[in-house]
From TrEMBL:
Keywords: Glycoprotein, Leucine-rich repeat, Membrane, Repeat, Signal, Transmembrane, Transmembrane helix
Keyword DNA repair set for record: no
Membrane-spanning parts: 380-404
Annotated stretches, region: Disordered: 416-445
Keyword Protease: no
Protein name: Uncharacterized protein
Span of the signal peptide: 1-21
Length: 445
């Protein structure tokens, strides 16, 4: 009974509006050009050969204009579109966005402009869009980003600039984008990032500079990025990277396919304790991808080798982490994961030989791997010969002198034995001195 009453009441209240919406409301004009969903204020205008923006759809919240032929967006192109929140203008052969094209679109939060023909982003292009959070400008032909190109959009969180022709960025391009979380600059031609480019981006989580022409990563560049989690630098020509600042959340550095020979400046990253627990309590693998770098497997690489040994299991799923040696020649293509003994026996033997008999065995086992490059050996040979000859002459002279002196005192047999011993000592001293020289030379390279 009760439910029936409710049903009738609801019907009585709602019927006028149902009748109104079905008979009185004229079909929305936007329906004439696009697929228009009245209740969602959503216009799907994709793939309609449009050459201008259909003004009939000005009430929309979600506006899909993909795959049309609109080449220029003039000032106030979307002036009437006061509700606009999502604007998709991908694949429109768009060449020019006049600064102010989106002015008064105060509710606009997402703009998708990827896959167009844009070459320049002028200053204040996005002025009047104060709530913009996502901006996709990837896969255009952008060469020039004027200073202040992103001024007026302080709430921006995601900026895609990948797959363009960008070779230069000014140091204040991203200034004031303090809410930025994701910045993608991959596949451009950036060879230099000026100091201060990322200053103030304290909320940045992901930064990708992969696929550029970077050679050096200067110091101080990432100092402000306290929330950075992932830093992608793969497919560049990086030969040097300065020690990274303390970034407690950073757990992914991708340096795959670069020109690094030494990674000693990343030792702190490997050692730093960081938040690595997942919600289910398992440890998160701190990812450092260094495969395809011409690494020089000397003593300096030891922290990386140990770290890779510890994470062998995880590395099975991350081929980019499976770093290999390029030099010395004997170790060429040896995977650091497969290398269970230190590369650096010379160093460890002097350091560990007194510790435990096992370390001696370990060093012996590893010794065939320790071959210093021919060049180092050949430059060392003449020096060794000279040193040995001079010391031999001095020693022999001393020997003759002592024997002569002792002879005169009549205590020859004892002294003879003793001098033999000192000759052995000399030989031993020479052996230990030699590798130390090599080592000093080697680690200095
Ligand atoms: C767009 O134009 C092309 C030729 O210019 C035509 O083949 C195609 O049918 C048109 N599409 C629409 C949706 O009108
Ligand atoms: C950053 O914001 C300040 C203050 O609002 C402004 O003066 C400056 O021009 C802005 N700089 C850039 C590059 O957007
Ligand atoms: C390590 O950092 C120093 C500066 O702190 C720099 O001079 C050097 O080139 C860096 N080495 C590598 C291999 O990146
Ligand atoms: C914990 O979660 C991660 C993904 O977040 C998953 O890969 C892993 O297998 C999970 N481990 C367990 C023990 O459930
Ligand atoms: C790393 O690569 C080498 C070959 O270069 C392979 O033998 C080894 O199994 C790989 N290690 C892991 C942990 O995947």
């Amino acid at each position: 009974m009760h439910t029936n009453m409710w049903y009738i009441w609801t019907l009585l209240i709602c019927s006028p509006s149902i009748v109104y919406s079905q008979t009185m409301q004229p079909p929305h004009e936007c329906s004439a050009v696009c697929e228009y969903t009245h209740w969602a204020l959503d216009a799907d205008c994709k793939n309609r050969n449009l050459t201008s923006i259909p003004g009939q759809c000005s009430q929309v919240v979600t506006f899909d204009l993909r795959h049309n032929h609109i080449r220029i967006l003039p000032v106030g192109a979307f002036e009437e579109f006061v509700n606009l929140r999502y604007l998709d203008i991908e694949m429109m052969e768009l060449e020019t966005i006049t600064p102010g094209a989106f002015q008064d679109n105060i509710n606009l939060v997402h703009i998708y402009i990827q896959i167009n023909q844009l070459t320049v982003i002028r200053s204040f292009t996005f002025k009047g869009v104060p709530n913009l959070k996502q901006l996709f400008l990837n896969s255009n032909k952008i060469k020039v980003l004027d200073p202040g190109a992103f001024e007026g959009i302080p709430k921006l969180e995601t900026l895609f600039l990948s797959d363009n022709d960008i070779s230069e960025i000014s140091s204040d391009l991203f200034r004031n984008l303090t809410k930025l979380r994701y910045l993608y600059l991959e596949n451009n031609h950036i060879s230099d990032i000026p100091e201060g480019t990322f200053t103030g981006l304290t909320n940045l989580r992901h930064l990708s500079l992969a696929g550029n022409d970077l050679v050096h990563i200067p110091s101080g560049l990432f100092d402000d990025l306290k929330h950075l989690r992932a830093l992608k630098l793969s497919y560049n020509h990086i030969i040097s990277i300065n020690p990274l600042p303390d970034l407690p959340r950073l757990n992914h550095i991708d340096l795959f396919n670069n020109q690094l020979t030494s990674v000693s400046n990343l030792t702190d990253f490997l050692k730093a304790p960081r938040r690595r627990r997942r919600s289910n309590g398992t440890k998160k693998f701190t990812e450092l991808f260094l495969a395809k770098n011409p690494l020089n497997c000397d003593c300096d690489i030891e922290p990386l080798r140990i770290w890779l040994q510890v994470h062998r299991e995880e590395i099975r799923n991350h081929h980019r982490a499976n770093a290999t040696c390029a030099s010395p020649a004997e170790l060429s293509d040896v995977s650091l994961c497969n290398q269970q003994t230190p590369f650096c026996t010379l160093h460890t033997s002097t350091q560990l030989s007194t510790d435990h008999p096992d370390t001696k065995a370990l060093t012996r086992a590893a010794s065939p791997l320790i071959h210093i490059s021919d060049e180092a050996e050949s430059t060392l040979m003449p020096i060794t010969i000279v040193v040995v000859s001079i010391s031999s002459v001095v020693l022999v002279t001393l020997l003759i002198l002592t024997v002569y002196m002792k002879c005169r005192n009549g205590r020859i047999p004892y002294q003879k034995h003793n001098t033999k011993g000192s000759d052995d000592d000399y030989k031993q001293a020479n052996i230990t001195e030699n590798p130390m020289n090599k080592h000093a030379k080697y680690s200095g390279m």
